[in-house]
């Protein structure tokens, strides 16, 4: 994982030169795929709205359709009210599911009193991804101009699961999903979950060793 200065958590430098290579000479252009990228992810889509219904949810529908068309799977669709506890509880629950790799919410990122999605999600974040909101607002300027200052699109990692919080408009969702999330979701899922399989394997091995030791002890007695 890299900090703002191009170093990972162990202090190793991974800065890129002007030709898209890292310090070890490896190519990191747009066509390069890292070994830890997830080719297909399982997504949970959450619409945050007190006025929408499951029959009328264009933003949520777009997210789900875009993920499936890109070869990913949508395992959960939920519609919840604009309520702090509902948003936080739902995101917390979904990120703990074994069958969910990424959570994408739509709605509740504006500045009205009931727009509480960023606040609710930030309370759960183990790591923040400020670059997502920065890039989203930068791209949004082309469509909405200075009104982009009212957008609080947010992203981060909860329980080793990337979470993206998008506005409720379909145009904003299209921009965020097509131009930012889908190009990077496999890479982020791979990074966020890296090492978890090894840890699970180590725990299973420890349990097996403990069971063998108990069996040997019983045989000796």
UniProtKB/TrEMBL annotation:
Domain MoaB/Mog: 44-188
Family, similarity comment: Belongs to the MoaB/Mog family.
Gene3D superfamilies: MoaB/Mog-like domain
PANTHER family: MOLYBDENUM COFACTOR BIOSYNTHESIS PROTEIN B (PTHR43232)
Key words of the record: Molybdenum cofactor biosynthesis
Compositional bias per record (Acidic residues), positions renumbered to this chain: 198-221
Entries under InterPro entries matching the protein: MoaB (IPR012245), MoaB/Mog-like_dom_sf (IPR036425), MoaB/Mog_dom (IPR001453), MoCF_biosynth_CS (IPR008284)
Top-level taxonomic group: Archaea
Name of the molecule in the record: Molybdenum cofactor biosynthesis protein B
GO-annotated biological processes: Mo-molybdopterin cofactor biosynthetic process
Region described as Disordered: 1-38, 192-221
Species: Halorubrum miltondacostae
